[in-house]
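Subject: for your reference before the review

Hello V.,

The reviewers asked for a structural picture of the protein, and I figured it would be easier to keep everything in one thread rather than splitting it across files. Below is the amino acid sequence we used in the manuscript, unchanged from the supplementary table.
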Amino acid sequence: MPSQVRHTTNRGKNDSALLLRWSSGWPGIFFFSGLAGLGCQVAWAKAFSSGIGHEFPAVLAVVTSFMAGMALGASCFERLPSRIKDDPRCYGWLELAIALWGATSAFAIPALNAVILHLLGPDPLPMLHWTVVFGAVFIGLLPATACMGATFPPFEQFLSRTWRKDTTGVLYAANTAGAVSGALVAAFCLMPLFGIRNSILLFATLNLLCGLLSLGMLRSKRAQFGVAARHEGRRSDAAEKTPFPSEPGETSRSGQWLLGVRLFFTGLLALGFETVSLRALSQVLENTVYTFAVVLAVYLAGNALGAAAFQRLSEKKCPRADHLLLSLAITSLLAGAIFRWMPSFYEHLRDALGDSLSAVAFSESLTALAVLGLPCFLMGGTFTSLAQSSLIFRPTLSWSLALNTLGGAVSPLIFGLLVVPMAGLKAAITLIAMGYLLLLGKSRCLFALPIIALAAPVLTGSNDLIERNGQRLVSFKEGPMGSVSVLENTNSQRVLKVNNRFQMGGTAARIAEERQADIPLLLHPRPHRAMIIGLGTGITFGAAANYPDLMVDGIELLPGVVDSMPYFADDRVALQDSHASVHIADGRRFVLTTTNSYDVIIGDLFHPAQDGTGFLYTREHFAAIRSRLAENGLFCQWLPVYQMDPGTIAIVMKTFLTVFPNAESWLLRFNIDTPVVGLIGWRAPPAFTPNWVEEKLGSSETLHEHLRRVGLADTVRLFGCRLGSISSSATVQNARVNTDEKPVVIFLAPAITFRRRDDNPSPRLLALVRDFESPESGFKNPALRKRLASYTAARDLYLQGLSEEDQGRAVEAVSLYIQSARLSEDFTSGYAQALAIATSMAATKRDIAERILTELAEAQPKRPVAREILERLKTQP
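And here is what came back from the structure prediction:
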């Protein structure tokens, strides 16, 4: 493309030469403007997610509102009087307006979240949900985003006149490079250290400095600039007008129309490619708070490099837009082909680089780069090319920027809410490639379209990226907020996975998942209504059906999870009947907006490292749950100790304690591989009786059989799961509090996830067991207190034995199992474990097996199994 000519008089040229040296630092200001803009976007998404609920709607709403506001701002700038548009101080005033509204938003977003919750209610229809969320976020951020969209045209116009050449590529590259830094700084530095609100204020301060610095620089040089600007004038109408990139013979009007179509749809397809890639990478990468920042940074870095390269190349020989669009179609399909190898590629990187935060971030960056790198590089060059071409028809870049960002604004809605859920990743990436081809000239499009259509299904491979590991894929559903899969192994055991990374339970752990409902329901004197937040497989929800006359509300965010629950259903219970109802809703929002009162509320195992899940462990969420409890109600929040480090556990416990001062810690089951601890808080703790469980059984044979099967059929076995009062732990007392403003859990929790392959959770569990007071407190009956003391002491020895056995020290483990059997007749797990070891040794190490069986028979003489096996063993030759 021929460079655009800026005509000046000799006097103007002399003054412009003075400004050229002075203005070499202006792109740096635009770099920091981009840093502040994207940093605010990341922080805004977190601020809204604490109110809207799930992370994905908040991110989608903020991205869409960000782009739509920028489009509106750029469009409005086009209509301003020339005296305002041509004034270089306009950029500085816009930055000051951004700073003002950015600072205001830090305090206004909580109020806006409250309005959104009021409009949505607990269980909104999908159309109402998305309309309210997008509309409220758009209006709330509009003053800042509109000003952001209006900053690029005046800055480019001013610098182009000063440098006497097109600076579109330079400024786009500088601004986008700043955006890369903003995304990373927000996620890795500012929000973890200062919280969400303070991060927004810091970015607003940076906008303020950019505005003041630009106004100060212009004021110091206003005399020189005034001479140059008066003589240079606006872009000359006499400049050469080659209607690039129109076809030969087209009029100027048709060339402008074609350019406008290309600007809109390249923005739509570029953001569509980012949305589809994020969904694909969510099945590969860790999906922590850092993952989104890393992928966004790679996407923006590719655009920045492409813009800079095109700017440099355009000064020599400019590539045609048709060539760039064809290249984008091809590279988009190649990226789709690469998706299928991403899981193994990422795992190889993890094995090679390690499990530290920097190593994982680098692994995620390289994986994202393999998918996004080349297409994003071409996207940056394509926008620069088309934007420079628009200067032939319009005096500023506002028209091209408005069209491009408007396309980007509608893209996440089209691809995130419609195309991917309805057609899958393969169809989405194929549609993007087709879209780029349709932007070519007619002859080229007709030639290339059939070839791409035939190649696309082969190149893009499967719709899912699920790691099967020899398992059969029973079900796969791609929804607006994530993919849900059901896998079955050779033993017919099924597991539920979300985004391929997070296992949400399975049939192998059925008893453990049922106990998640049983323990809190048994601890209430007489529950009439319960709520379960997070349904997963539905096994916990189904267990509540065993309790007569209990009404239960199940809250689940993902429709695909609810659709998959029948694959895990127990034939003995119904997932839905007249007393049970399932609500597809966000747990936080449902709790804040429902008017129901509950006797028991149960929080499922929420993976704390998953982006956004940390808000389910905040003080504000726990307080909202307390307000929904009946007078004698209780709340149980289960914690996946196997997915949390000691610091994160202590933070959640301390946060829980600030809302429930009488909170206690309970074990779900006696297991060291996937240990789970429950935090139970009462509004008013009941006075437990010696026959607490036995009295609750009544005449219900169904409940009695169910509790016998899960090992909770008597008071000793129920309260044998009790660890003790949380307030008795010194570690908990010294921990920080997790809040909506400073959600420290989402930044700390990923560390343990990164070490998932070689992590051993048993030391964390044993440390928790040692950290609490005696669990028999609260009972006045001396006989029960003695039985409970013996039971819990045997339990602790058994857990230590499991740890010893896990480390290959079988002799020490057996000794601990026998000691646990000797301590308590009620505790049978140690007896059973030692019995299993002795039986397995009978064929090869008979003497050791006989010794173990002899000691077991002496430890619990009332149990005949060890003695019978020993007698049979002695009679064998």
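For the response letter, the relevant points are probably these. The CA atoms of residues 417 and 480 lie 5 Å apart. Confidence is low (pLDDT under 50) at residues 1-16, 223-251.

Happy to draft the paragraph if you're swamped.

O.
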